[in-house]
Design brief:
about 100 residues; about 0% strand; mainly alpha
Length: about 100
């Protein structure tokens, strides 16, 4: 084997070693990127779940509040209707008394 061929082989071996080292660095970076993305996805999923749970709880509280409000208003409307019926009965009695 000639000196030029041996030199060429050494150069190629050196380049292959550098390529392998660069590939290891890139693989390590890709592995860190994947780990970061997994962590971000997990954190996003946890935050989304927490938001939905809080929304469900708020909705439940709102529903209870609205139900109480409707019950209260129904009571007031019933009382108003009863008062109006009483007034209508009194007016009818006055009309009936005037007709006699």
């Amino acid at each position: 084997m000639s000196q030029d061929e041996l030199s060429d082989i050494r150069r190629r071996l050196n380049a292959a070693e550098q390529d392998a080292a660069a590939a290891r660095v890139l693989a390590g970076a890709a592995d860190r990127d994947v780990t970061e993305i997994r962590t971000e996805i997990r954190d996003f999923r946890n935050a989304t779940t927490a938001s939905f749970n809080a929304l469900r709880e708020d909705f439940g509280d709102l529903r209870t509040h609205v139900d109480r409000g409707f019950t209260e208003m129904r009571g007031k409307l019933d009382a108003t209707a009863s008062g109006q019926q009483h007034i209508a009965n009194l007016i009818q009695r006055l009309i009936d008394d005037q007709d006699r």
